[in-house]
Amino acid sequence: MKKVITFRQLFYMFLAISITPILTLIPADLAVGNSSSAGISVILSLVALIPLALLIVVFMKAYPHYNFYEILVELFGRAVAKVLIAFYGIWSFVVLSTKVWQYTLNLQSSIMSNTREQVFFVTMMILVLYAFLRGIKTIFRFAEFVLVPMLIILFIYILSAIPNIRLDYIKVANTLTFSELCGQAGYIIAAAGNLFLILIYGDSVKDHSKSGKLIARFLIATIALFLVLLILVTVVTFSLVGNNASAMISTPFYVAMKGISVLNILEHFEAILIIIMFLSDFLGICLYASISMRCIKWACSVRKMKFLYIPFAVFIYYLALVLCRTQFDVEYLYNTILVKWNLIMQYVIPFALIIVHYSKIGVTSTRMQRVEVKSKQ
Prior knowledge:
CATH class: Mainly Alpha
Distance between the termini: 46 Å
Number of helices: 15
Number of strands: 0
CATH architecture: Orthogonal Bundle
């Protein structure tokens, strides 16, 4: 595999695809409580995010230039690795179909309410197919190119909203139990779990020789920026429209920004948010389409994948229509099934893998010690 991706591009991609969930799904899910409970949930999410970051560092250092499938082969052998990859492939199909729906609903609920979902599906698939023909390197470079402008615009939105903040909306004591707070933290953890997916591209990273300090630095900065942006967006959203209203809106931050002006000069510029969410959705769909194709490649031992692009696009089109029919179906699928499934695929299985990794190291070191003892005898 050609080394075409840098660590910076990997982490930029994670932040870019996280923007839409930060603006839509997570504030709506955290709105069950209030700003105080949301802050506590963010802190609780670190209990999972910090170990996940350490896990990524361990795997990157222990298996340099290995992708996720090759790591599984090293730990379990080829047969078990193919079964696990098939499981990851099914999961990525469902996530991809859900992301296509979420992108569609974001546009329908904001500026194109009378447009049929099939139009959005086909439009996105054409764009993704074009991106795939340009190559995965181009997709990651595009994420690197658009992330900084997206973040600058979001911070301008947040600063512009400060004069309109209602403190009585956010100065509320937490009323949720610890188990409910953990449930809210689960939504944050499920979105942040995309960090684990960088292991999928371990064989494509250019600068693996610098992995130790470089990965740690990028991980700390990425997680910190993710959480800071999440806190700011959630607090601003709750302080403008209230947590009760946020819970009932699919795009709460977009609604909160309506009527906000910059220096009393620029007004009604919330439409730029639609472009930002579209770019984030586009990159997220590209990423999960790439992961799905890689899982097919590894599970079926296929070398060339271009002939599968159009059949796979048609498959995802119909899978999305079969899985969901309405916004209620999408929300039910995500909140009831997909969040828990994400936690299993991005946390439970990886942490099980790290246990197997260290147990194999322990067995190997024990055998080496026995060999040394016998040789001395």
